[in-house]
Amino acid sequence: MTVPIDVKAATRTFLAHVEEHLVTYLEACVHCGQCADACHFHEASGDPRHTPAYKLFPIAKAYRAQKWPLSWLGLGPAITERDLKEWEELLFDTCTLCGRCTTICPMGIDIASIVGTARQAFVKAGLGPTDLLAAADSSRDHGSPLGVTAEKLKDRLEWLADEHEINIPLDKDKADILLTVSSIELMKYPDSVVSMAKVLNHAGVNWTLSSKGYEATNFGYLAGKADIAKLMVERIVDAAKLVGAKTVVIPECGHAYSALRWSAANMLGYPLPFTVLHISEYMAQLKREGKLKLAPFTQSITYHDPCQVSRRGGATADARYLLQDFATDFREMTPTGNLNWCCGGGGGVQAISRAADLRYKVFKIKMDQVEKTGAKTLISACSNCRLTMDESKAHWKWEGGLGSLVEIIADNLVEAPPSAGNGV
Ligand code: SF4
Ligand code: SF4
């Protein structure tokens, strides 16, 4: 049974949680329209509602309704249930928080951050996509959005260690490196977890996973549930403190990296007591230190920059450094790096089932990009991108290959320990 929305209460709550500085952004927009061509949703659908500036519209309308001179008489722009439903779609289904529009906007308006904050206000008003909110609740109640509890983690890691005859340490007393995982990898791409273990074992570092804090994805962050976002961060911080880790390595997951690297300290109110590195950054560091010995990889590949790792994360160059002198037939897409097109499933959009058709449309941009390079395989460093692209690939029956950066690195490790140099 659908519960009727108390529109006035929802609007009041929404507005009460929209921060003042966001309203300043509304005033700063000069309506130049340049951001329209930057957004993959607008590019794929041609729908004017998908332009980035239009996604500010909910805040603008609610704000004007409240500030209208005669609003106390019930006059002024009325907010309706239909408005709220449209806003929900705009804020959750049609923005992956990719930040591409911000790189184009002459006023530097950070629409991704505004949408992220507006999501929190929306959820406080009791609204939001049920499947995305359920993934956040599952993270709070079971430890992960896909229900991977600490017991399931242990079982799964033991199975992977047996199956691949490798050591995957869990709950060591002390370790320099705390490795985290994404439940998307554990359940759908377990080879990625095995690959990270192979790389860390190969480099000879002292590492562990922890049953106290293992899930790197942060659906609280994506769903606008600030309390769950903080809880997910606290679990990792507590686990890292327990083992004395100096570095926490984030797996191939873009928003997990963004949440811990850039937002966690603000959520907690104190600096993190360790360094946060995405697995691609960490592998690049190992290569610089001469701890990665790789055989050349000769298949033709291109690389999809996960938005939160490259454009929003600053690790664009490290993936290239890893591929340099290793992937002998690497071909860049156009555009690439910090201007790469998003996969269409970031920012929680992958978990919203009703957004599937829109994601498929967005993937056509990527298919076109890859085909222009002539590369056989599209490599990514984000399991959420990979899942989004895998589903879209199946939808379009696309024949291009999809793969993972850490997996091609792990598959080409040369077992003799390196002595010096860059290891390649
Ligand atoms: S952040 Fe990305 S998805 Fe969101 S409006 Fe901007 S370009 Fe579009
Ligand atoms: S590019 Fe910036 S200023 Fe121009 S319409 Fe978009 S948000 Fe507004």
Report what the structure shows.
The protein is mainly α and 424 residues long. It has 3 domains: 7-128, Fumarate Reductase Iron-sulfur Protein, Chain B, domain 2 (Orthogonal Bundle), CATH 1.10.1060; 132-287, Rossmann fold (3-Layer(aba) Sandwich), CATH 3.40.50; 301-411, Rossmann fold. It contains 19 helices and 7 strands. The chain has a 4-stranded parallel sheet with strand order 2-1-3-4. Helix 18 links the parallel strand 6 (377-380) and strand 7 (401-404). The longest helix has 18 residues, at 226-243. It starts with 6 loop residues before the first helix and ends in a 13-residue tail after the last helix. Mean pLDDT is 91; it is low at 417-424. Bound molecules: iron/sulfur cluster (2 copies). One iron/sulfur cluster is lined by residues 29-35, 52-53, 105, 107, 109.
The largest beta-sheet arranges its strands as 2-1-3-4
N-to-C series of helices and strands? HHHHHHHHHEHHEHHEHEHEHHEHEH
Can you give the mean pLDDT? 91
- CATH topology heading of the largest domain: Rossmann fold
- CATH architecture assignment name of the largest domain: 3-Layer(aba) Sandwich
